[in-house]
Structures are given as C-alpha cells and as structure tokens.
TrEMBL record:
<dbReference type="Pfam" id="PF13181">
    <property type="entry name" value="TPR_8"/>
</dbReference>
<keyword id="KW-0802">TPR repeat</keyword>
<dbReference type="InterPro" id="IPR011990">
    <property type="entry name" value="TPR-like_helical_dom_sf"/>
</dbReference>
<feature type="repeat" description="TPR">
    <location>
        <begin position="488"/>
        <end position="521"/>
    </location>
</feature>
<dbReference type="InterPro" id="IPR019734">
    <property type="entry name" value="TPR_rpt"/>
</dbReference>
<protein>
    <recommendedName>
        <fullName>Tetratricopeptide repeat protein</fullName>
    </recommendedName>
</protein>
<dbReference type="Pfam" id="PF13176">
    <property type="entry name" value="TPR_7"/>
</dbReference>
Length: 567
C-alpha cells in the first residue's frame, strides 16, 4: 500500500538519464569514508526498493522513498542518494530539496563541505567549490560518478565558465580513468571547446588503447565538434582490428558527419559484407539514406529482415517503412505498397496506412485509398485522429462530405479531449450545413481552450454568416477580440456581425481596420457589401478601384463588378 501511494504521488522524472548506483552509495553499503548510522532491515528493504524503482525508470517514486527514510533515520547518505537521483533526473526543485536535507544532516561534520560545494557550484561560485570537490574525489572509488553529478548540477548552463574547474578536477585522472576523460570530453563539446574535447578524447584512448568500447565512446563524444579527428582515431584503431564491425560502423558515421561522401560509401559497402547486429543494420541503412545511397540502404534493411527474424516487431516495422519510402522515391509504388502491408501493428502502423493511402490516391485509385483508411484500426487517439483526418480529406476530394463528417463524428466520440480535432470536425459540420453540429463541437473546443480566440471567432462568424443568433455572435466575437486585439480576421468578423445587425457605420470601421492589417479579397468583398447596402456607391467604387490597382489580375474582380454593379 505504501509503495502504491508513493508511486501515485511521485514527481515526474520522465526525462531522467541513466542513473548509476555508485558502489559507495548503493543501498546496502555505507557511503565512502563517512560514518553513518547502521541500517535496520526495514530501512534497508526500502532502500533496495528505491534502487529497483530507479532501474524501472520510476525515479520519482525512488526519490520520495529516499527522502522519507532520510528524514526518519537522519542518515546523510540516504539524503545524498536522493540528491543524486533528482540531480541526474533533471529535477532541479527536488534536487534542491534533497541537497538542503543533506546539508542539514551533515552540519558540523567533515562531510558538510560536500553539499556546500554543490550549492556553490549551482550558484556559479566555482572557485569556492573546487577545494571541497578535489578532496571529495579522493575518497571515491568511481570518480566518474561524481563528475556526472557535477555536470548534472550545471544543467547545461555556464559550461564555458565551469570548464576550468572541471579540467582542474580531472587532471589527476587524465589518461588513467577513461570514464572521467570521456565525461570531460562530452562537456567540452557542449561548450564548443575543440581543444579540450580532443585532448580528453585522446586521453581516454591513451588510458585504454586496446579497449574498442572506450575508443568508440571517445569518437562519438568528439564527433559533433571534430568529425575529422573522430574519424582519424577510429581509422587508426581499425588498422589493427579490421574485423571490428561495430567500430567500423562508428567510423562510417564519423565520415558522414564530416561530409566525406565517397569515403562513407566505401565503408558502407564494406559493412554490407560484414556481420552486424540487428540495430546496426538499421543504423547503416539510415546513414546510407542520408548519404544518398538507396541501394546500400535497401541491402541493409533487407539483410536485417532476413537475419533478425526474432527482432522486436517495431524494429522490423521500421525496416519495412524505410524500404517502402525507398521504393516510393525510386518510383516503384507497388513495391512500396507491399512493404507497407507488412506493418500490421505497432508505432509505425499509422504511418504505413497513411503512406499506402497516399500511393493509391496518387496512382488514380481513390476508392482503394479510402478503403485502406476505413479499414485501419489504430489504437491510440493520436493515430485515430491522423487516420480520420486523412480519410476526411479523401472523402471531401471524392465529393463525399457527409461521409467525411460521419467519420469525423465517430472518431470525435472516442478520442476524448482533442481540441484541434473538435475544431476540424466543426468546420466539416459547417461544410455540410449542420449548424447544430458546428455549435456543439465549437462549444466543446471553447470549453477546452477558454483562453483561445479561435473558437469564439469561428462560432461568432458562422452565426453571422447564417444570420442567426446575432447577439450571441457579437458576444463571441467581442470575446475573441478581447483575447486577441488587432487580429485582422477577428476584426473582419466584428465588421460582418455589425453588418448583419445593420449597424453599417461600425461595420465599415471594423472592416477598414481589418484591411489596414491584412488586405485580402474576402474582407474587401465584405466592405463592398456594407458600402453598397449603406447606399454609398461612390465609396464602394473607390474601394474596388483601389483593389483593382493593387491586384489587376485577381480573379475576384469580375465577380465583384457583377455582384455589386460597379465598373
């Protein structure tokens, strides 16, 4: 019951990166060289549960558990772990709360300088933070974990100013602790410091010259800033390890990043003859597409499908989708359709149905296009809306607006609060002259977005256009004007409502204000209507002459002249 309560009220740490369990901070151990109270079995159970929650990406729940136990036991190590989780989860409010508790629980002890150093770091006082961190790092068996916490505390800010502190702290570990070197390299890339980034990337490789994982990580970290240096590192390693396909794939990636198209093509062709893992084939295919190599991409995706038949469905579906796109781009619509038909569920299902419908429509088979979408069974609301929106467009193009409206109404019943789709459904109701439907869907839209002018303006204008509920139309459009003053569309609506109310002077004022902001044919037509109804034909002729002078080839000119009896 307690775990359930904690989980339901936990803060959302959904943006969390991977959170390491520092061997000196793990739930079952005392942290570092500091002396903490012994853990009871109940507390130990809670701490283990919190670590399991972290591994399940439920860091918010873990944070709450740790904070509760830290307060109950007065154990600073538990507060420190709570800070670590919140800090690495990019949850600054919770990190501050845990940091304050950690500081409180360590008051008067040697450890107190550590939370104080984090406070100094977060406030930008790097000089004050350095001595405590340097001392603290000496107590750690995994200094890279502390560097991760330091980077997280910076939260992507003041990187350039923090780099001197970071490089100074990292100096004792340079070329001996590759994890620290790689971490500094990544931060230097964020700070656009090529010299520091390359220095620490090379230090990581120096620390582990035969470790392909370190070399790949160093190259990947450096690649955004120095793709050539990244490529050189990988090329050198591949001279001694030519069969390391994983490293060769990263090498190809660095060539692509450095826009070395010919060199990339050579490596990509070579990779198609190697044994890659499932996702590596996908990565190779995507890179080949970026480099304009459709044949290599097709080979990569097809090989993946042949060799990874037990791969997760969405990975296989991605390959089907990419092969479909490639077939479309090479003007092979039937091949594309056959690939898309393989996608029968998962996150690419909707995209496959939409692409199939588009192919049928473009190849002169609108009935097949409509059938594909009518038979589609998307599960998520987003997919239902996408399918129905495309279906309504096809039905409208086939002169079947009522069928389009029916489809939209059915979907509107099942998708819950989807204001944009409700608005689109209201516009379809307007198209089939279902005023009751227009009002129903726009009222729902307004209820969901009460501070948006769009719904008020649309409903008010439609009432005015049909010459019904004019007082309500005025109230709605005035509300829209309050929410979004000086909007030409809303001013046009106000002018049209006042025209319907036969207040021609006010109608003229608002329409002229609209035209001063956006000079368009519809508002000109509205103004011509008002002026002719008010009996001011001279002003109407002058307005039409002005429009003709600025838009001599506009197709509306003959219509305006005939409709209003003007020259």
């Amino acid at each position: 019951m307690l775990a359930g309560i904690m989980l339901s009220s936990a803060p959302d740490f959904s943006s969390a990166q991977e959170i390491p369990a520092d061997s000196k901070e793990a739930a079952a151990e005392k942290a570092d060289s500091y002396s903490y109270p012994a853990l009871t079995s109940d507390v130990l159970f809670s701490l283990i549960a919190s670590e399991i929650a972290v591994q399940r990406h439920q860091s918010g729940s873990a944070f709450l558990t740790l904070m509760e136990e830290a307060k109950k036991t007065g154990n600073p190590g538990i507060a420190r772990r709570a800070f670590a989780i919140a800090n690495l989860s990019a949850a600054p409010k919770e990190a501050s709360e845990a940091l304050a508790l950690w500081s409180k629980l360590t008051a008067g002890t040697p450890e107190a300088e550590v939370p104080a150093a984090y406070e100094a770091l977060r406030s930008g006082n790097f000089d004050a933070a350095e001595p405590a961190f340097a001392k603290y790092l000496k107590t750690q068996s995994r200094p890279s974990v502390v560097f991760q916490q330091i980077f997280a505390s910076l939260n992507g800010q003041r990187i350039d100013k923090a780099l001197p502190l970071l490089t100074s702290l990292a100096k004792p570990y340079e070329a001996s602790e590759p994890a620290v070197d790689l971490a500094i390299c990544s931060v230097a890339v964020q700070g656009a410091r090529r010299d520091i980034a390359e220095r620490f990337a090379r230090s990581a490789i120096k620390a582990a010259p035969q470790n392909p994982a370190v070399i790949r990580q160093a190259a990947i970290a450096l690649m955004p800033l120095e793709p050539q240096a990244s490529a050189d590192m990988l090329k050198q390693f591949l001279k001694d390890s030519p069969e390391d396909s994983a490293t060769r794939l990263i090498y190809a990636q660095s060539l692509l990043a450095g826009k070395q198209k010919a060199e990339f093509t050579a490596q990509a062709k070579l990779l198609t003859t190697k044994k890659l893992t499932g996702t590596q084939w996908i990565q190779l295919g995507e890179m080949a597409e970026q480099n304009g190599e459709p044949k290599i991409a097709e080979t990569a995706y097809s090989t993946f499908l042949k060799t990874e038949q037990k791969a997760p469905a969405d990975e296989r579906n991605l390959a089907y989708i990419r092969l479909g796109f490639l077939s479309e781009n090479q003007l092979r619509p039937e091949d594309a359709l056959s690939w898309y038909e393989q996608v029968t569920d998962g996150k690419y299902y909707v995209a496959a149905r939409l692409r199939s419908a588009d192919i049928y429509q473009k190849t002169g088979r609108p009935d097949r296009a409509i059938a594909v979408l009518e038979q589609a069974k998307p599960k998520a609301d987003e997919g239902k809306i996408a399918i129905t929106t495309a279906l309504s467009q096809l039905l409208n193009a086939a002169n079947q607006p009522w069928q389009a409206y029916d489809a939209m109404q059915q979907t509107a019943k099942t998708v819950g609060n989807a204001p944009d789709f409700l608005y689109s459904t209201a516009m379809q109701a307007d198209k089939v002259n279902d005023l009751q439907g227009v009002e129903f869907y726009l009222r729902k839209y307004i209820a969901l977005r009460p501070n948006s002018s769009t719904g008020y303006n649309a409903l008010g204008y439609i009432f005015a256009e049909r010459n019904v509920q004019l007082r309500e139309a005025l109230r709605l459009v005035e509300k829209a004007n309050t929410l979004k003053p000086r909007d030409p569309y809303i001013l046009d609506s106000l002018g049209w409502v006042y025209y319907r109310l036969k207040n021609y002077e006010k109608a003229k004022q608002f329409l002229e204000s609209s035209l001063s902001l956006r000079y368009d044919a519809e508002t000109v037509e509205h103004l011509l209507t008002v002026l002719t109804q008010a009996g001011d034909r001279a002003a109407a002729q002058a307005e039409l002459d002005k429009w003709a002078a600025q838009h001599p080839d506009d197709q509306s000119l003959p219509t305006f002249r005939k409709k209003f009896g003007l020259k």
